[in-house]
Write a structure and sequence with these properties.
This protein is an alpha/beta fold and 646 residues long. The protein is built from 27 helices and ten strands. The protein has helices at residues 2-21, 24-31, 35-55, 63-95, 109-124, 132-143, 159-171, 180-183, 196-221, 252-263, 285-294, 296-301, 316-325, 339-347, 365-375, 392-398, 412-424, 437-447, 451-462, 467-475, 478-482, 484-496, 499-506, 519-528, 541-554, 573-582, 619-632; strands spanning 273-278, 304-314, 352-362, 384-389, 405-406, 559-563, 566-570, 587-591, 606-611, 640-645. The chain has a five-stranded parallel β-sheet with strand order 2-3-4-1-5, with helices on both faces. A three-stranded parallel β-sheet has the order 8-9-10, with no helix packed on it. A two-stranded antiparallel sheet has the order 6-7. A hairpin with a 2-residue loop joins strand 6 and strand 7 (566-570). The longest helix has 33 residues, at 63-95. This is AAA+ ATPase domain-containing protein. Keywords: Leucine-rich repeat, Nucleotide-binding, Plant defense, Repeat. It comes from Triticum urartu (Red wild einkorn). Residues 510-579 form the Disease resistance protein winged helix domain.
Length: 646
Amino acid sequence: MAETALGAAQWVVCKALAPVADGVLEAWAASRTFGLNIQALRAELEKVQATLEIAATKELPGLATEKMLQKLWDSAHNAEDLLDELDYFRIHDELHGTYDAADQPGDGVLRDLACDARHTIKDLGKLINCFPWQRAELQQRSCGDSFSASDTNQEVSGCMSSLGKLLLSSCSPHPHVRGDEDRGNAQEEPMPEFNRADFSQRMRDTVEQLKLMRNDVKDILQTCGPRTVLDIAQRRATTTPQSSEPKLYGRDHVMNNSIHDITEGQYCDKGLTVLPVIGPGGMGKTTMIQHIYNNQQVQNHFPVRIWICVSFNFNLGKVLEQIKEDTLTVEGENGCSTTQELIEHRLKHKRFLLVLDDIWQFNDVDDWKKLLLILGKSQEKGSMILVTTRQKEIADQVKKSADPKELNGLEPGEFKKLFLVYVFDVEKCPGDKRFLLDTGDKIMGKLKGSPLAAKTVGRLLRTDPSLAHWRKVLNSKQWAKQTNGIMLALELSYGFLPFHLQRCFSYSALFPEDYRFRSRELISLWIGLDILTPSDQNPTFEGIGLSILNDLVIHGFFREYKTDGGLRYVMHDLLHELALKVASHDCLRFRLPDVGSVEIKPSTRHLSISIENLGEYNGQKLKRELEKLKTRLKVEHLQTLMLFGA
């Protein structure tokens, strides 16, 4: 994940440079006689940015580099906070007429500055709301944006505001800024006096901190070689037609229907058919296709069978060469001058099955059309192409007269059989091991129906069939450390995303598991976190937010879920765990009764809390829980607090 940490650090540095990019803040700082400090901070940030650009060209090592980049990320965040705070005072001067520095005088200046002020306060974390989308709604109303999020607020109990007030009193570093719930009931406290000496010293300290971290990163980069352009999928083994799983669990219905349709049903008398199989990593797509490929009925139906593991980029030249190698020579092919002509000649009178496993993207979608044109010249009816992919966009591009087969988690009964096979080699728990079943059921609940999860965690449990070991696995994070296969499968998908999609996906971890999102809830959260950047193509927050959400659906990170109340979006539980993992540096989510066992990092900026069984809390019990949380919340820059009641 060092590449992810690098991307995050680059993004924060760009944000930190934003307040000084137009020169307005520097001009104001010069008037307050500490402009040289601003210039030094800007210069150091630009050096950090250059260092990170060099890092992007290097082959980064593992965990140590990731930690170093995260420290640089923290330092850049501190610089961002400081510059935003200075910009806040600058805007305050302008709004109150103490400094006339507006670039464009006119009636709209104060309105624009008010919008900027709210944006700046939010970035600083001076204003912590219970719901980020409420803050986004206020911001957009003030700025005249057409997007409204008023109907996205989650229904929670009135005691939530008490928790918000308590945490605000302990975390907000600026006492003159109040929570929204207090604004109508109290007069605004006086603006604190601007302390030039204090800010000068803080800027010097920040410059020194950035310089120290930058030099440490430079030292590491000197030992790193240049990054080679390798397929992301080279981190996983190439698949073959041979399955390591002798029995297929939980997919019998899908597999048998597919075999019937292919050999004697709807596809057997048609021209070339493409059938996509789609699903998240670890759901058993390849395993099911292996069982179809090796089924005796399928073998009898297809004289020619070809298996190609595409793994990431679809390369037409390589696919054609593989087809050439896997087909037998026929009479008259000596007259073929190209690989394309040779394949057309060999398959002209043959029914064939072609498997293209694990397609991630097309560099040129026309290559796919060319392949279909070549293979479609076979005069035999019923030829098939089976495609596996994690991405809906790929499935939509390749499908040809057949709707995709979508695989999700296994049904609980079938999953339990598979899990027990990996642990005990039998589908039922042996009589002398039944004392493990209760703990085993709880562990299975963590695995969310993933066949890959059953395999990796089952291997962990079978090493020691004792209750103490199983309870240790259940109550610790040991199983997660041993299930690299699960996270690797998901991280491959995550690593493939552009950074702006990674960022938006990761912050969805702040919502509870199995949460059914409205589009406006997600978009308003992203706006509140200031991670959306409108463009010429999408000039509004709503437009860019919907575009990102659609991209995450296409890449398989969210599923659309239709309800009577409209369209919702859901995330597979394992993907939610992935989001928690990649966002763990600055995001934390937990349930209120568990506060004593949760590690709260000083770098936490975004906090999400669920209060379970809210109706069971009386005043004293809730107060004790809140006080317990308050004593443990030692973060310096809390920006977001989300509360959920159940």
